[in-house]
Amino acid sequence: MTKPLHLMWFLAGYQPRGWFDPRYGSGHDFRRPKHYLEGAQALERGCFDGILIADQPSINNTYNSSIDAQLRSGNESICGDPLPLLTMMGAVTEHLGLVGTYSTTFHPPYLLARQLNALDHLTEGRAGWNIVTSGRVTDGLNFGFPTPEHDHRYDMGDEHVDLCKALWESWEPDAVLLDREKGVFADPAKVHQVDFEGRYHRSRGPLSFPRSPQGVPVLAQAGASQRGREFGARNAELIMGNQNSIAGMKDYVSDVKKRAADRYDRATRIMFNIQPVIGETREVAEERLLALKRLAKHRVYVDAGLAFASGGMKTDLGKLDLDIPVMKQIEAMDEQERPKPGSILFQYAMENPNFTPRDLAEREGLKMTLPIVGTAEEVADRMCEIAEETGADGFMFRETLHPGYVADIVDGLVPALQRRGAMRTEYAGKTFREILNEY
Ligand SMILES: Cc1cc2nc3c(=O)[nH]c(=O)nc-3n(C[C@H](O)[C@H](O)[C@H](O)COP(=O)(O)O)c2cc1C
User: Fold this and answer.
1) DSSP states of 117-171
2) Is 137 exposed, middle or buried (0-12, 13-18, 19+ CB in 10 A)?
3) What is the mean pLDDT of residues 166-180?
4) For 318-377, what is each residue's pLDDT tens digit?
5) Ligand 1 centre distance from Cα of residue 221 (Å)
6) Which of 174, 200, 241, 340 has its C-alpha lying 20 to 30 A from 250's C-alpha?
């Protein structure tokens, strides 16, 4: 290993995913903070860089033109606002980066700048923002205006980020004097209006609270499209990807490097979602994977997966026969409704002509990208190889904070990585940005 890995946890939201998972049992309540907070503390024990809480602001109705399947299955479109939970996590940890998901399309910049400024203060510099543009029709219906088109949303997003940065920097670092002798709280000459007049956003400023420890929270993003990747290369310091193959990861890293050019080494870290399955022996790990695969065939997960994927792809998968290969069905679909080239369904169907919607549902149920299965030692070796081969800076574990799984990672995998020099054994940096830039 040339340098250690960065590790983050990717929590699908403040939401019910896991309610049907037999590992949890009936005492589990996804609405209560306890298991999230214990999870955050465990991640800090494992020297993780941070946790990201995903979010979306609507229960989409693409699948069968209804939200029923999402409600019945309790899938990850049912989300509460991540900010209160991040704040609580901040209160029980000292080092863990805390990344919330907020939309540049629907969250007004001034409001968001204030919220993340407060989170950064309260956590002494550990706030991050997963910048999303929210493309579901139902997102717009909830906020009362139509969801703009894809590239237009990214144009709005660029401006949104510029305005937030201007607001975060509207107080100079030494503006607060707290001079009791002279009776001066802050130096007015060091607090500035921003007078931002954009095409989509405007704000006078300044922000109504002093500059936070990081000033600008760590900016994270996960674009897949050309426009989305341009946006990430321009704005993000933490770029996250979902890729199912080594070749896909390699391409993604080299594409981001090209786009970010001189920003890359200084300011950009790339991490890929993974969900390794770990057992005391390889056989136990394989058995665990089989059990997860069996569970993913259950109607609850099939509904959850198809409804969630339909929203993301803007294709009603409810119109497809579950067991007929996708490729055979595409021809018969309206032009408008066909899965777009580039969508996951299309990609899988291109790789395997016999790929069916049920296969997609099971993959969605598992949420597994590249399968990594084995003992902690084997998984550690595999992660090092993948990072070496692809140029990734690290990985994000895409799972619930189930205590057993968290323990497999923090008490099994992390020590194995540490023994290889592939993971820090203590934090050197103080703020989230410093921690991301430790190596
Ligand atoms: C790791 C990761 C996390 C994501 N988190 C969210 C999220 O919380 N909310 C959301 O609406 N979209 C989320 N997305 C979707 C991306 O923001 C993005 O829209 C998607 O990758 C498609 O790319 P595009 O916008 O360039 O078309 C996530 C994607 C990835 C890979």
Assistant:
1) HHHHHHTTS-EEEEEE----HHHHHHHTSPPPPHHHHHHHHHHHHHHHHHHHTSB
2) middle
3) 98
4) 989 999 998 888 878 777 777 777 677 877 888 888 999 999 998 888 888 899 999 999
5) 7
6) 340
> Can you state the angle between helices 299-313 and 357-366, rounded to 10 degrees?
100
The CA 25 to ligand 1 mean position distance, Å, reads: 30
* Predicted structure pTM score: 0.96
Closest Cα to residue 229, out of 239, 219, 237, 238? 239
CA-derived radius of gyration, the chain = 22
- What structural domains and CATH numbers belong to the chain? 6-281+368-436 (3.20.20.30), 284-366 (no CATH)
Ligand 1 atom with the smallest distance to the CA of 10 is 1
Which residues lie across from 10 on neighbouring strands? 52, 398
> Residues lining ligand 1, judged by CB closer than 6 Å?
10, 54-56, 101, 130, 132, 134, 222-225, 228, 240-242, 273
Q: Which two tokens stand for residue 50?
A: 């941070």
